[in-house]
User: Fold this.
Amino acid sequence: DIQMTQSPSTLSASVGDRVTLTCRASQTISTWLAWYQLKPGKAPKSLIYHAFRLQSGVPSRFSGSGSGTEFTLTISSLQPDDFATYYCHQYHTYPGTFGQGTKLEIK
Amino acid sequence: QVELQESGPGLLKPSETLSLTCSVSGGSISPYYWSWIRQPPGKGLEWIGYVYHSGSTNYSPSLKSRVTMSVDTSKNQFSLRLTSVTAADTAVYYCAKRGDYGDYADHWGQGALVTVSS
Assistant:
């Protein structure tokens, strides 16, 4: 199985900050990577697919980049609604595997 | 905007069969693929598999022997069955619409907690 490693596990930041979350794959996955936002008791939200393509309706402050084994999710200016846990997901090899998540906390 | 909602029993005993249904609103179940994903408490996400609107399926090898997914197009619903459950199957189960361009999820339900306990 392809292992996905996210860093950091927890990130403390303030409204208005620019933050970058990292996801590394144990082998190359081209750009077959998605990012999701999860909040307790709410439907998870799909943010990014194909490493950098924004899902419809996702604010433009979210962006994804990377290819091969190194990927990032950047939020350009944190909003109160963005404090959540973020997961990366490789779908290069079926069944896809997920990172362990990065919890974005309010500083 | 497609919306999904899981339903089913929240408490099972070991060896019983987990049965969940996902109701799709705001769009047709055809001609798309539909997925199930789970997250045990305090752990990461796990892709269980997907079912096509025609009924064809693709399951995770680790669960393949115990999983069945099906579609009811007349009700705009799809379902998950997982047999012989153990405590390790305790998780929040999410239904999701598989993305149009690959095996990711582009719309999710809010999840249903299923606890397996004697």
User: Anything to note?
Assistant: Chain B has a mean pLDDT of 96. Chain B touches chain A through 25 residues (CB under 8 Å). Residues 39 and 45 of chain B are 5 Å apart (CA to CA). Chain B has no helices and eleven strands.
